[in-house]
């Protein structure tokens, strides 16, 4: 689906609903919806975003899902939300205040939904949202109640120093931790 620049700009006011349920194994958390995601209503909808290919390559899904199939994640014990709900063309349009408020709201959401793991796709977003400036990719010491946190590489095509293969390896580490013998 193609959108004009005007249609994408008009999507700035739209919210992308969470794909979530109580007790998920992993609740993936993007930084915030891009304008393509806001226009379509689907997470990680920009064609260059590698979230869906990485999810499959790491073994989370048996085939590569399209953004329009995002609801199928629930059957695999997975969901998606964002640190900040406001759609933007680029994440650098967000303020540190928005990240911190997003972290507070995300902590409330996690307390309600109680996923086993919260997987934040973007270590910098995690650092700002949760005030952990020294966080690195991987499992975090910090928890939200019983929910463990894993900082993942951002799947954006702009994050070029992570290849599809290296991202799939890191996401695969999370899959093994989240599903154990079921993986």
Automatic annotation (TrEMBL):
GO biological process terms on file: base-excision repair, AP site formation; epigenetic regulation of gene expression
Keywords, in A-Z order: Activator, Chromatin regulator, DNA damage, DNA repair, Hydrolase, Isopeptide bond, Transcription, Transcription regulation, Ubl conjugation
CDD domains: UDG-F2_TDG_MUG
PANTHER family, A to Z: G/T AND G/U MISMATCH-SPECIFIC DNA GLYCOSYLASE, G_T MISMATCH-SPECIFIC THYMINE DNA GLYCOSYLASE
Uracil-DNA glycosylase-like domain location: 17-180
InterPro entries: MUG/TDG (IPR015637), Uracil-DNA_glycosylase-like (IPR005122), Uracil-DNA_glycosylase-like_sf (IPR036895)
Pfam families linked to this entry: UDG
Protein name: DNA glycosylase
Keyword DNA damage: yes
GO molecular function (one): uracil DNA N-glycosylase activity
């Amino acid at each position: 689906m193609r959108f004009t620049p005007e249609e994408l700009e008009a999507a700035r006011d739209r919210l992308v609903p969470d794909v979530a349920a109580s007790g998920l194994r992993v609740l993936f958390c993007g930084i915030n919806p891009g304008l393509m995601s806001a226009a379509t209503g689907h997470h990680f909808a920009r064609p260059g975003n590698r979230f869906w290919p990485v999810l499959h390559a790491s073994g989370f899904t048996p085939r590569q899902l399209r953004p329009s199939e995002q609801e199928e994640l629930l059957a695999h014990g997975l969901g998606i939300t964002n640190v900040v709900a406001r759609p933007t063309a680029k994440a650098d349009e967000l303020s540190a205040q928005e990240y911190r408020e997003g972290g507070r709201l995300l902590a409330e959401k996690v307390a309600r939904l109680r996923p086993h793991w919260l997987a934040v796709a973007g270590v910098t977003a995690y650092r700002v949202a949760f005030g952990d400036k020294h966080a690195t990719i991987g499992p975090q010491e910090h928890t939200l109640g019983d929910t463990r946190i894993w900082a993942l590489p951002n799947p954006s095509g702009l994050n070029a120093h992570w290849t599809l293969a290296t991202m799939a390896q890191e996401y695969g580490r999370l899959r093994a931790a989240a599903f154990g013998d079921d993986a």
